[in-house]
Write a structure and sequence with these properties.
The structure holds 2 protein chains of 2 kinds. By secondary structure, chain A is mainly alpha-helical. Chain A has a domain of about 210 residues. Helices cover about 70% and strands about 0% of the residues of chain A. In chain A, helix 7 crosses helix 8. Chain A is globular. Chain B is an alpha/beta fold. Chain B has 2 domains: about 160 residues, P-loop containing nucleotide triphosphate hydrolases (Rossmann fold), CATH 3.40.50; about 80 residues, no CATH class. Chain B is about 35% helix and about 25% strand. Chain B has 9 helices and 10 strands. In chain B, helix 3 crosses helix 4 and helix 3 runs parallel beside helix 5. The chains are: A mainly alpha, B alpha/beta. The interface between A and B is large, with 33 and 52 residues.
Amino acid sequence: MAAAPEAETPGVARPRWHPAELAFWIAPVAAFFAFPDRRLLLSQIFVYALFALSLDLVLGYAGILSLGHAAFFGTGAYTAALLAQHGWTEPLSGLLASGAVSAAFGLLVSLLVVRGSDLGRLMVTLGVGLLMYEVANQTSSLTGGVDGLGDLPIGALFGKIRFGLDGRAACAYSFAILLGVFLLARRLVQSPNGLALRGIRENVRRMPAIGVDVNQRLRVVFAIAAGVAGIAGAVMTQTTQLVGIDSLGFQRSAEVLIMLVFGGAGRLYGALVGATVFIVAQDALAGISPDYWQFWLGAVLVVLVLIARGGLLGALDALRRRVKRRR
Amino acid sequence: MASALQTRDLRRRFGAFTAVDGVSLDIEAGARHAVIGPNGAGKTTLINLITGTIRPDGGDVLLGGERVTRVAPYARVKRGLARTFQINTLFPQLTVAESVALAIGERRGHGRSWLRPVAAQRAVLDEARQLLRSLQLEGDAAVTTRELPYGKQRLLEIALALATRPRVLLLDEPAAGIPSGESQQLIETIERLPAEMAILLIEHDMSLVFRFARRITVMVAGRVLTEGNPAEVAADPRVREVYLGEERHV
């Protein structure tokens, strides 16, 4: 192993980039050039990966089960749409504004969420999700109701690059946002704040006994995650120039939960892997028959949860440990 | 000077059952005080009232003279009150070093910090190493907590409490579950704790109580039966009757 500039402390891992991580991040760039006609699909993967990453902060790190995470995705998506419709067409500032609105909404919801038990949290998040869907449905003069909003005038990136039909700009934009947010999230989970979140997940009873206001930490991470979900929704709106009411729907909340559990919660990369596998498989199988897709999705999910706790990456870890032991 | 920890006429009922019925304790800085009593005497409820995990129906808790009866548990820790748990309450998947670094970082106020990785915080890690060394856990720093032998997990319980640099330390049956022949290291650790720290020990193991405590409170049915130095308590016929009569360790 290379000599570290400072002495290692046993038991506290220094954050290093593993070669596999670098390879992981080169893959989407390679895909961008290798599949020029699939860039819209790639862009969709990046959006969902970002969304799943947001849920990982809530579920994987803070240990809060959410069944209504699309409420924040949709809040960001609709904020971006309404901003554009009302003349705020510059995408980057619109993105930040959408994230901020969603984070503020998340902070509000967090006041209700962190108080409850697991079941209480599940119900509150589910309820907020249903509520937001109905609000969007009923205020159709503003949101377009079930039809959503289309033909949104999204401005050019840096005043130059337009989101065209070929998906080039969409793909690059959503990838850049995903990478940027991922780097921040990676930083967060390695910080003392991230260690405290792991502590909360590991043993919530001990945390007050070492002086931690657990609910305050959970509120903050929930709001951050809501902001990230909102950014994901806003990217979706901006790159497709439309927003549908399904971006707020229960189906979307359930899908992102499946992606995360599928990839493996509590490790950041699980969210990215889960989203990628999910979208690619959906795209490949939905052509055959949508029902077929749901059937196999259900079957694989059940098997995976039963035999490989920790999702795909959890299974990979277990395999690696086994190979190591055999040597 | 105000006592390190005081309870005044603490009361708590659960339905018709009165678990703690007017308990007043006075624990000076540097005290070595034990609370003993048969099962159901209200010792656990008393600890929960002092740490704030349950609210009293009446009475007060004072830390260094400050009334903290309505202060949240985490905020009492910030005011210098720490506890250990009778049943290990640790972080199973964190390493030993991470666990104490977490507690130390929180005390130093880094807990909300985002940007610097834990591994880059020298001061926290140095303090963690020193703390582990003082408890003879340094060699286990990289071990994941759930893989730590039980006896060492009991030491880590104490390490996490000490990481908060308490003025008052509540030890809730620190030797619980350790075979009496193997409790030597734990007892030595407790005896080496800083002299100025006030320690309240809740313990069933009478040999540990009489070896360690300079003052003993005997609780029965939610009330203080008597309080005194070990010789007085051991000589009290009422104590022998309700408590020591069952366990002939003394």
